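Posted in: Structural Biology > Protein-Ligand Complexes

Title: Requesting predicted complex, BES in pocket

I'd be grateful if someone could produce the 3D structure tokens for the following input. Sequence and ligand are given below.
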Amino acid sequence: MATLPSLRLAGEPPAAPTVLVVPTRPGDPVRLAGRVPIDVAGLLEREKAKGAAGELVTVPGERRLLLLGLGDLSPGALRKSGAALARRAKDEPDVTLDLRGVALKDDALLGLVEGLLLGSYSFTRKSNPKARALKALTVVVKAPERAQPVVDRALAVVGAVAVARDLVNTPPAEKSPAWLARQAGKLLAGLEVTVRDEKALAAEGWGGTLAVGMGSSRPPRVVEATYRGAPEGRGRHVVLVGKGITFDTGGISIKPNASMLTMKMDMGGAAAVLATVRAVADLRLPITVTAVACLAENMPSGSAQRPGDVIRPYGGTTVEVLNTDAEGRLVLADGLAYADKVLDADVVVDVATLTGAMPVALGAKIAGLFTPDDALAAQLEAASAATGERLWRMPLCEDYRTALESQTADLRNIGDPRLKLQGGSITAALFLEAFTGGRPWVHLDIAGPGWYAGDDDEVTKGGTGYGVRLLVRWLEGLAKKR
Ligand code: BES
Ligand code: ZN
Ligand code: ZN
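-- Reply #1 --
Done. Output follows.
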């Protein structure tokens, strides 16, 4: 599993840092770099350096010195700068960033620290991993004690993101539903955690998760984990439902090989909701949050569900399964109905790598947000702007609902192709809505940003942990509201 470098604040740089980093800014490079005994202004001019976020300039003859652009000092610029530095320094044992010359707002310092830590994440199963890796980061500020709470917050949240990334990056042979449930138990030790095995699921009628999991030799699980931070009898209960397909072959409606290559990431929603509860508990937010992670492996086999089967997700609604590759909505149907009928949720957010149509529409960096509730949409959009985890609101187009009508059952699990509607992400969201019982609900389709093909700013190759920072920020806002 990944280990993040340690990060400490100091009032003075250590005596002999391996690498010392000094910030530069557009229009103001000389004053900030003034303590360096070289012609910094001339150097920056020769390098055509502008102090843009993440811009790194090496100083000739000064192997230990780096100049780092901080852009406009916005949280986003600082996140980018932090990540760029972490990448450049990834083979150095320690790095010191001297920020005494810059006045940073709390959110900007948070962005910087998040960028430093997120950018230094890596996951490897190489038999001979590199011995040299960044182990220690020191950030020098004028008032370290005052800045410490910001760093503590970043450590809690990025720690949770790193766990989510690890879970997504873990190879699928290791990542059975039972394994993932055990990891969740370890991650959330100390909270109220219940793991339902296939027998408990059958007894209680979790027909969606069971149907998806029945083709695998490794049976499904549902993890329910609650952190109770709200004062007794007061405050809202937030339920986060996560899609946890530990590997999505498509089942009998099998995927072509190329589409399957990244399908160990199909539990990114479950990883995000579990990690979010960990972070919220670490931050001791005065709010009560339950994660429901529906875990199954979607395999083709003699015991797999077939196109044409009729199943009963939690609560008894019947569903005609016409494509076994549209399995995420079946496990989420269980979780959403349970949140409604049993948990009495005040607000439900589901997070899922749900449809291939979502990255077609929004690309690899933007999640789709679906909700009938304008106020909830605005809250999540605000959290998105603050964290840089991008999303875009999509329509729950009423007219498309007829595409989900089935001859045999209450619903079909894919839009009727005869209606030639396209918009597969929208019909998927409309399907989910049928299980929410009309409760305030948000659906986040993270099929795009749950995984990234390379390193880019604070995102690292592979599982991104998308959703953790967004949800934690949103929950912080909710906790403050009361
Ligand atoms: N897990 C996939 C969606 C996905 C695709 C996530 C690409 C990340 C990247 C999902 O279960 C799926 O296969 N959806 C089908 C639905 C279709 C059969 C209606 C899809 O999008 O093709
Ligand atoms: Zn699928
Ligand atoms: Zn899937």
